């Protein structure tokens, strides 16, 4: 498939937002979700699924179903290797230095490994143990593997049934399905595995976002474009604009939680269980984005974002590695502010663009050598 500059720009922008979210500064809480109750993680997962669905169909048309499955397995294996490298670094150099230098943030991040290294290492290799900050890549790998039976189910039963089952699982996840299944499995096998070690993301909820992204990449984009361009498209866009604006104001006026009482509001805006407001926010922004023409993005002076998006995987890998080093360099667990916070931001963003530049140069040299 030929590259789509708009998708590269979006990936670059999402990577910059995710970096803001991860960097331990006092500004991260306000700036990591600038468009409402929607973070870069939702955008990245949806966009990754969209590309996976699009490329799967393209590979199947050219090489058959086996060729498409082979591409998915190769992509998943590639991501798994990058994740494994991060785990090795985190469980050796970073863990040792965190203990020796007494870094609270890193000790908390690797708490299960520090308590039980062998069990943690084995379960992390099996993508069960997912330490904070290192949980995006394993989720991506698992969802890529899930795509194989999903697309087979679509071929047999159609998208309506697959989407319907996905929605049911998402609804059950809002009411604690993951915790229930974990307690049943843990009670039966007696693993003594901490629930928090499964990772922050509830995969039973986030699978809906992946399934929607796959559908969007296979058939949903054209249908959404038709809906936006139809006679009633103006009403759809107006509703999407009002919803996006309302959630934007709500997010920044009332703070990250939105409501004053977290006990009653968490269900509606919780990120980790992909709560309803976040899906609505994503749907509204998606309608607005689809209504824009790609030429608008190409005419804007945002070439660095496109370059970053073309090397997003390697830039993301470098970002996670640099983040571990930044946490190692900070002596306190409080978010950095002032000149220290500014230095953290500069270091974090420079890492992104340096990694993207190095990857682009490496790719250019290899293409000439070939």
Task: Give an account of the 3D structure.
- 79% of the residues lie in helices and 0% in strands.
- It has helices at 5-22, 28-31, 40-101, 104-109, 111-115, 117-125, 136-157, 159-174, 177-189, 203-229, 233-254, 262-269, 276-291, 294-299, 303-310, 312-329, 338-369.
- The protein is globular.
- It has 17 helices and no strands.
- By secondary structure, the chain is an all-alpha fold.
- The relative contact order is 0.15.
Keywords for this structure?
mainly alpha; 79% helix
Q: SSE order in H/E notation?
A: HHHHHHHHHHHHHHHHH
Q: How is the main sheet built?
A: none
Number of helices: 17
Q: What would you call the structural class?
A: mainly alpha
- Report the sheet-strand fraction: under 5%
Low-confidence parts, pLDDT < 50 over ≥5 residues?
258-263
Tally of extended strands? 0
Percent helix, as a range, is: over 70%
The average pLDDT is 88
Give the end-to-end Cα distance, rounded to a whole number of Å. 20 Å
User: Any idea what the shape is?
Assistant: globular
Q: Nearest-angstrom radius of gyration?
A: 21 Å
């Amino acid at each position: 498939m030929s590259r789509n500059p708009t998708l590269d720009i979006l990936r670059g922008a999402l990577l910059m937002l995710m970096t803001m979210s991860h960097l331990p500064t006092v500004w991260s809480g306000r700036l990591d979700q600038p468009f409402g109750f929607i973070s870069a993680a939702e955008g990245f997962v949806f966009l990754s699924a969209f590309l996976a669905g699009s490329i799967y169909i393209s590979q199947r048309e050219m090489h058959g179903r086996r060729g498409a499955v082979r591409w998915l397995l190769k992509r998943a294996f590639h991501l798994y290797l990058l994740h494994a490298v991060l785990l090795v670094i985190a469980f050796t150099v970073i863990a040792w230095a965190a203990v020796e230098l007494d870094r609270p943030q890193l000790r908390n991040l690797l708490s299960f490994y520090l308590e039980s290294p062998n069990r943690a290492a084995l379960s992390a290799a099996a993508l069960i143990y997912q330490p904070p900050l290192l949980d995006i890549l394993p989720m991506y790998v698992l969802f890529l593997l899930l795509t194989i039976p999903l697309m087979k189910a679509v071929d047999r039963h159609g998208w309506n049934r697959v989407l319907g089952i996905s929605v049911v699982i998402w609804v059950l996840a809002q009411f604690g399905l993951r915790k229930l299944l974990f307690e049943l499995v843990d009670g039966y096998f007696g693993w003594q595995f901490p629930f928090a070690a499964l990772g922050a993301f509830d995969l039973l909820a986030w699978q809906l976002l992946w399934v929607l992204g796959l559908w969007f990449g296979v058939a949903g984009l054209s249908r959404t474009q038709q809906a936006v361009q139809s006679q009633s498209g103006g009403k759809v866009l107006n509703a999407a604009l009002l919803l996006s604006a309302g959630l934007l104001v709500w997010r920044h006026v009332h703070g990250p939680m939105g409501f004053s009482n977290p006990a009653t509001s968490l269900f509606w805006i919780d990120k980790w269980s992909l709560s309803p407001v976040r899906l609505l926010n994503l749907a509204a922004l998606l309608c607005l984005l689809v209504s824009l023409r790609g030429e608008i993005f190409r005419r804007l002076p945002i070439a660095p974002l496109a370059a970053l998006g073309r090397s997003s995987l390697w830039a993301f890998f470098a970002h996670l590695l640099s983040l571990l080093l930044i946490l190692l360099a900070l002596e306190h667990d409080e978010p950095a502010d002032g000149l220290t916070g500014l230095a953290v931001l500069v270091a974090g963003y420079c890492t992104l663009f340096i990694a993207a530049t190095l990857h682009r140069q490496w790719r250019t040299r290899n293409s000439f050598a070939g």
